[in-house]
């Protein structure tokens, strides 16, 4: 070889470039985050007991009768989770809200308004993380002239009290 030192230097330079390129070409590992490092995200929270689940069937009276409007509430602690499915055989007026134990402040989370022209089934599904300890639940009203059955499926961390609360006035005045 006429230029042995040049060949050795070129080989060394090539090896250095290959090593540098492979180090640069390796993908950087993705960042990691531990939820305990960011508790405000509330992505996971251990509990002392297993979650509960319940199915509640509620019959709403026709709109002109007492029992056409009521509330169903459960007690949920601040930061606790609740998953729900509310279904009815006809559209109902539904309002999901909560009342803080400490301040009695009311927060409205979701409102679904039925139209009298709607005649098909109604459904509302969701997940909920309680922003405060309190009674959280649904105001339900039947705008129809016949009874409507509502089925509420719940799962999560809650107590079933206060439960069903009746509103004494009908949704509509009798003709």
The CATH superfamily name of the domain at 52-166 is: Mitogen Ypm
Distance between the termini: 112 Å
- Oligomer designation: single chain
The SSE string, one letter per element, is: HEEEEEEEEE
As laid out across the biggest beta sheet, the strand order is 5-4-7-2-9
Record field, number of beta strands? 9
What's the level 1 CATH class of the domain at 52-166?
Answer: Mainly Beta
Shape: elongated
- Number of helical segments? 1
Radius of gyration: 30 Å
**Corresponding CATH architecture of the domain at 52-166:** Sandwich
What class do helices, strands and sheet pairing give? Answer: mainly beta
- Low-pLDDT parts are none
Q: Name the beta content range.
A: 35-45%
Name the average pLDDT: 83
CATH fold-level name of the domain at 52-166: Jelly Rolls
Biggest sheet layout: 5 strands, antiparallel
What is the helix content? 10-25%
Characterization of this structure:
With 175 residues, the chain is mainly β. The protein has a domain of 115 residues: Mitogen Ypm (Jelly Rolls, Sandwich), CATH 2.60.120.510. Helix content is 13%, strand content 42%. The chain is built from 1 helix and 9 strands, in the order αβββββββββ. Strands 5-4-7-2-9 form a 5-stranded antiparallel beta sheet, with no helix packed on it. It has a 4-stranded antiparallel beta sheet with strand order 1-8-3-6, with no helix packed on it. 19% of the residues are buried.
């Amino acid at each position: 070889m006429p230029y042995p030192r040049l060949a050795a230097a070129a080989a060394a330079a090539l090896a250095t470039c290959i090593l540098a390129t492979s180090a640069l070409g390796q993908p950087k590992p993705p960042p990691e985050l531990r939820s305990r490092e960011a508790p405000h995200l509330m992505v996971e929270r251990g509990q002392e007991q297993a979650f509960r689940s319940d199915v509640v069937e509620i019959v709403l009276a026709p709109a002109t009768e007492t029992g056409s409007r009521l509330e169903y509430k459960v007690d949920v602690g601040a930061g606790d989770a609740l998953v729900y499915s509310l279904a009815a055989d006809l559209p109902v007026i539904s309002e999901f809200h909560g009342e803080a134990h400490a301040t009695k402040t009311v927060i409205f989370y979701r409102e679904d308004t039925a139209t009298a022209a709607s005649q098909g089934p109604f459904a509302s599904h969701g997940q909920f993380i309680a922003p405060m300890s309190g009674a959280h639940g649904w105001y339900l009203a039947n705008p129809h002239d016949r009874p409507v059955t509502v089925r509420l499926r719940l799962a999560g961390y809650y107590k079933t009290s206060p439960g069903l609360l009746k509103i004494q006035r009908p949704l509509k005045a009798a003709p």
